[in-house]
Amino acid sequence: MTFDLALALHSLPVLMHGLIVTIALAACVLVLGMMISIPMALARTSRHKPIAWAAAAYVLFFRGTPAMILLFFVYFGFGQVFGARDGFLGALFSNAFLCAVIGFALNHSSYVTEIVRGGLQSVPRGLVEAAAALGIEPRDVFLRIRLPLAIRYGLKAYQNDVILLTKATAVVSIITVVDLTGAANAVFYDTYDPFTPLLTAAVFYWVLINAIRVGLSRLDAWLNVHLAADERRDLAIQIRTEGLAPALPAGQLGEAAE
Amino acid sequence: MSVVANEIADERPIAVQIQGVDKWFGSFQALRQIDLDVHKGEKIVICGPSGSGKSTLIRCINRLERHDRGTVVVNGIELSDSARAILDVRREVGMVFQQFNLFPHLTILENCMLAPRLALSLSRAKAEALAMRYLARVHVAEQASKYPAQLSGGQQQRVAVARALCMEPRIMLFDEPTSSLDPELIKEVLEVMEELAADGMTMICVTHEMGFARRVADRCAFMDQGQIVEIAAAKPFFEAPRSPRLRAFLAQILH
User: Fold this and answer.
1) At CB < 8 Å, which residues of chain B contact A?
2) Of A55-69, A79-93, B38-52, the least confident
3) Can you tell me the distance from the alpha carbon of A96 to that of A106, in angstroms, rounded to the nearest whole number?
4) Does the N-terminal or the C-terminal CB of chain B have fewer CB atoms within 10 Å?
5) Closest residue of B to A144, CA-based?
6) Which residues of A touch B94 (CB under 8 A)?
7) What domains can you pick out in chain A, each with its CATH number?
8) Domain of B232, in residue numbers
9) Are strands B171-175 and B28-39 parallel, antiparallel or unpaired?
10) Tell me: the pLDDT tens digits for B199-223?
11) Which residues in B lie closer than 8 A to residue A237 (C-beta atoms)?
12) In chain B, what is the straight-line distance between the N-terminal and C-terminal CA atoms, in Å?
């Protein structure tokens, strides 16, 4: 078993196409997941018991179900369960990519719901009371204090879930979506060389995962600048208060003003 | 049980009227039949052993706690479950907490601008001018662009005072504002509170700073087991306490 460089180069366009499908799939799931998770986390902590129980049941069910089975169920089962062979729902459930987004989002959002809930519950009570005592309305207290802090508390756990999700999308070819793994497999079937395309795909995954990791770490550092070491924090404060313009010598600044 | 009270005729209008207030936490009764009228411009210090209901009482004034019986009327607005009434009261009443409770992800300036921007819908420029004015008033204007974690406890607490003042409240509540400060930082916070008192602010302070109480308070109230046991002008309160429990309390803390 040897690595065939010529084959690797030759299969780059196919793999690149697969990579784009993987990225598009993960991105759609992340957006849909966030849209589900924040309301679901609020429902989970609701004072109204039936709402809290319904959200808890959602998390219990979808967190305990393998993504692969959800994919099968959404792609092959939903159409029959809901009798949706025609019309809008029929079109929706016969599109493998959309089914994959829904299947993964159900699974992923159940994890993220718990991250958001944990983050919201970690916000010190005193901060919420201080905001309320200032006469800020509950909706604004949530949007300006609770949620921004919860995001900061939950970001590291969320980073793990984003990475796990991105890699978990590799099973999506079982419902006919040709993602990065699917593309690599196709090359394998054509050439009988399993090693070269799969190793090349692995490198693609590695680069993608680390790009995500670096991106989220930067986001984390930017959001948590108030906790940073003094030097970096001072720079951030300066940028925030004086704008991004580089410090120019006085003469140049004067000319620019004229 | 009758409250030992040394009533002084006070012609000023009533800012906070508390009548027959009871409050339970589960089966524990935190407040028992509290009656207290606070007049406009008056400074009241509430003291008492921990667990006596001091904090609960002032938290009922801005509805951080819901009272179970009786009435609380603040500047003519009666507190009920009405969200509108609660917001209206909170916009009249500023509060400073033992733990400062500055928003850690916002700068000092942003901490002070948040409520005026959201609750009073002020423009950015107006809110900033307002914030800078009150930050200057509590002597921390030069820290405006820093984050709370970069300030000392005393500075943070002064920012908390400024943040509350930015809503231009007519009444200020202080819930043990110096209890989590190092001794050398207590003074700077008390000085700011005394300046505020000198400007005529209506103030209700839960504190163990008896020197502050003597200098500033019009009346002092002593609470124990959810009741106001004794309430009197500062001088008789300290020099001629009438109830044995207050005498015992003062003997313990004035050493």
Assistant:
1) 62, 64, 87, 90-91, 93-95, 97, 99, 101-107, 114-115, 118-119, 145-150, 160, 163-164, 167
2) A79-93
3) 15
4) C
5) B114
6) 133-134
7) 5-257 (1.10.3720.10)
8) 3-99+171-253
9) unpaired
10) 999 999 999 899 999 999 999 999 9
11) 107, 145-147
12) 29
User: How is residue B77 written in tokens?
Assistant: 């607005």
Please name the helix (run of DSSP H) or strand (run of DSSP E) that holds residue B78, with its range, or none. Answer: strand B77-78
- CA–CA distance, B7 with B221 (Å, rounded to integer): 12
Please judge whether B119 and A152 are an interchain contact, meaning their C-beta atoms are less than 8 angstroms apart.
no
Q: What is the CATH number of the domain that holds B238?
A: 3.40.50.300
Do the chains contact at A226 and B149, CB–CB below 8 Å? Answer: yes
Please tell me the distance from the alpha carbon of residue A25 to that of residue B192, in angstroms, as a whole number: 57
Which of A130, A149, A227 comes nearest B149 by C-beta? A227
Residues B56-92 have pLDDT tens digits of: 999 999 999 999 999 999 999 999 999 999 999 999 9
Per DSSP, chain A holds a count of helices (H) and strands (E) of: 14, 0
Q: Which of B227, B233, B175 is nearest to B42 (CA)?
A: B233
Is residue B146 one of the residues assigned to a domain? Answer: no
Minimal CA separation from B26 to chain A, in Å: 17
Interface ipTM: 0.92
The number of folded domains in chain B is 1
Residues of A within 8 A of B115 (CB-CB) are: 131, 134-136
CB-closest option in B90, B106, B149 to A134: B90
